[in-house]
Amino acid sequence: MAGITRFSPKQRLAMTWWCRRQYAGLDAVICDGAVRSGKTLSMGMGFFLWAMACFRGEQFALCGKTITSLRRNVLREIVPRMQDLGFSCEEKRSENLLILRRGRRENRFYLYGGRDEGSAALIQGVTLAGALFDEAALMPRSFVEQACARCSVSNSKLWFNCNPEGPQHWFYREWIQKAQERCALYLHFTMDDNPSLSRRVRARYERAYSGTFYRRFVLGEWTAAQGLIYDFFEPQTYCRAVPVGPWERVRVSVDYGTVNPTSFGLWALHSGVWYRVKEYYFDSRREGRQKTDAEYVHDLLAFTEGETVEKVIVDPSAASFIEGVKRAGFSVMRANNNVADGIRVTANLLKEGKIVICEGCVNTLREMALYCWESGGEGRDVPKKENDHAMDEMRYFAMSLGRSLAGEFAACCVKR
Predict the structure, then answer these.
(1) Confidence of residue 376 (pLDDT cuts 50, 70, 90)
(2) 0.85 exceeded by the pTM?
């Protein structure tokens, strides 16, 4: 196969289990484990080869958290390889449809995004011969179960891949722990199962994670998030003095509160690194009074005086404050408020030295030492809602950087 020199035994099994006699009675395959372990590629190739070998004129579902991530994680990697094998691949983006042909055989693959509970309605009513779930653990249970229920064609099969979450996650409890009961082949991947992964790249991923995320994404364990969120962070190692200007670019991140504290962070780009050079922190409970939107906008103007601010990244729920910021002449970006992905991206950028907290940001450093995971839960990672205001706006900033810095890690967090 073009571009691939060899597959590991586990990758080959993920691709070919459906045509091996000992697995003939199985209805599903589940591939979980470490990031960059080769499970998405090998399982995706197997799914398309199985569909084209066993069916003609049928419909299939390709499911991801979003259609954008599905195109990036699955189609971009696998469609060229299918073409190398002699398949004709036609994508109709307006219909979220991929058509595969070879000779007189043709099948249709529809793309679905399982973003939230309402996504289940998108797949109702369709009849499927099979479904692939890329990052099944990131999708709501209602969506996955609805898609499974649509696979009513004779000999249909289900294909799941994911990276680990918490041990109370519904997918771990209902599918991985019950794989035999559900007639599913369970394959656990590690980075050793990807022969194309160089030692250098593997070492980079190992450096990028710590604590819970290391155990999940490097070791491939379903483990609970507990303790400090930024457990690796030590001020003597990661803090630096404010860099001497001129700075190349300036952004401000904002977590807006009325009863809760309001936090601003001013970030300056210098020699490829974004520094949190100063902060604003107003706690209305501690101060004994609340501020209005107009007062906060006035404080923002004073906070940024003398700086050319390219963007102010604001908590998207602060609608009235956002309007006030816009009227004051700032360009506003509504923050990406995906908490889990944002924490992972922030942690990775801090560890890589791409974002730095300067020594004078005392409230940020205080929250870093206190910001921790909520215990319990139903498999979702949830930070405690305390000591989190500078943490939230720092996360907003990290996610605002886009593909230039955060994109590599964000893609890893989503695709994993």
Answers:
(1) low
(2) no
